[in-house]
Amino acid sequence: MTHGLIVAPQPEAVEAGALIMMKGGNCVDAAVACAFAQGVVDPQMCGIGGFGTLQVYLPKLDVHEILNFHAQAPAATKEDQWADLIEGETRDGFGFILKGRVNDLGYQAVAVPGSLKGYWDIHSAYGKLSWQDIIEPAITLAREGFTIRPHMHTYWRSNESKLGRVDMIEKLRFSEDSRTLYFNEKGELKEQGSVIKNPGLAQSLSVIAEQGADAFYDGPLTERIVDDFANNGGLLSREDLHSYQTKTTAPLWGSYRGLDIATNTPPGGGLMVLEILNILENFDLSALKHNSAEYLHLVAEAMKIATIDKEKFIGDPDFIDVPVDRLNSKSYAKECADRIRKGPLVHVERYSGPEESKDTTHITAMDETGGIVTMTHTLGYPSGAITTGLGFMYNGSMNIFDPRPGRPGSLAPGKSRFSAMAPTILFDKGEPMLALGAPGGTAITMAIAQVILNVVDFGMSITDAVAAPRISATSDVIDLVNRIPHFVTDELEAMGHKIDRSYQSYTLAAVHAIQIKDGKWIGGADPARDGMPLEV
Hints:
- The chain is α+β, with helices and mostly antiparallel strands and 536 residues long.
- It has two domains: 4-145 and 200-248 and 363-400, no CATH class; 251-355 and 424-527, Serum Albumin, Chain A, Domain 1, CATH 1.10.246.130.
- The chain has 18 helices and 20 strands.
- The protein has a seven-stranded antiparallel beta sheet with strand order 8-3-2-12-11-1-20, covered by helices on one side. A six-stranded antiparallel beta sheet has the order 9-10-13-14-18-19. A three-stranded mixed beta sheet has the order 15-16-17.
- Helix 2 packs parallel to helix 4 (131-144) and helix 13 (293-313) crosses helix 18.
- The longest helix has 21 residues, at 293-313.
- The protein starts with a strand and ends with a strand.
């Protein structure tokens, strides 16, 4: 009998989760073990200096919850602290460009990390194996080493300066530990296939294995973290760490063509996924050719409407009143669909500029009891900062906050910024049939929605659904992968759409999913990353 299935973008992390299942762990144990391992082998994508959100469904325990462990602005944050530094906004809305890049590189870019507390809380509530067992694979990987994978190396060389941001290579050069870890004796980036050993992270994880999350938030690691930030002009304080708490809520529910959808709550991206699907439910998509110009036009316009509503209305519900019922209503979706039918093309206003960061990762795990965990976690955009000897990079989450006061995404002490992360599960007559999520910045919600359309409207297998060419429309420009034919984009341009074609065949987020069909589990790993599904 199959004991479990796990899918994620890093083979080493997938194996870590699978080994935990083989030892008798459940989907929670496997997901947390995988997450810890991801922080070792994909250290600019995620880690204990990051944040995230997850959905857990455990039918045998009658548990179905969202656990949010979003990063929070430190208590020293002021709403107008960067108001006079604004140079622009990225084209797709993933961050602001400030003078001196203070929100992008270094210690001021760091919000209060939530990932470790998230791992601890979900494991304490529902894990089966010991905390030490769960962390051990990650400690081994950090101590004995792992190889540099193609996607990691490509990301290191990404040219962010053309977008107004700090190049990733400069972030890797920022800290002493990072220079030692990722560069050779000549000062050049280590090549693909090179082995990286991270003894500092192995030691940090060993302390956490012995003492739990308190080691980070109110223990031996805290003093080193706090002193480092104080010495480098950071905002993070001892009280920020000591007072940090995760938040558990019921899922946000929606529906699409008779299927029920459970997703995460604001400030996560689940509401955007539901809004896009609600709008598109008003069109007979299956009557159109998949990825035809007419189909992509409808999908893009729905995406743009959801983006406008996100920027106007969606933020941290502890700070603003998010009109969830209205944005998730079928009547509002019909109004939006009528707007698309009548035209003109939807306009998304932007302050200025470029595109998104894709430094996030995802896990989907399922066990023999029918339990499911779908978790997305990230550094947001890495800060480059590493406390000497601790081995992990801190998040750069402050760069997404709106430096203009009085807006849903404006800065405030203790506030979490919007994140497109949207771990989602679809149910057919009360039984799960699809669990999915993705890394990929603002393209996350767009990719998840398209995979759902691929499965539901076009009957694709999950492997075909995650690999199919897709688009993202978070501005007046439709971003698309290179596998969408020019004759299709010619038609879109004739409709008035602006097109930005990627040189990559697989990009715009990276969906990782499990499909349950006819009693069988099928894992789908997006070809945009290096990962795989593994059944044990």
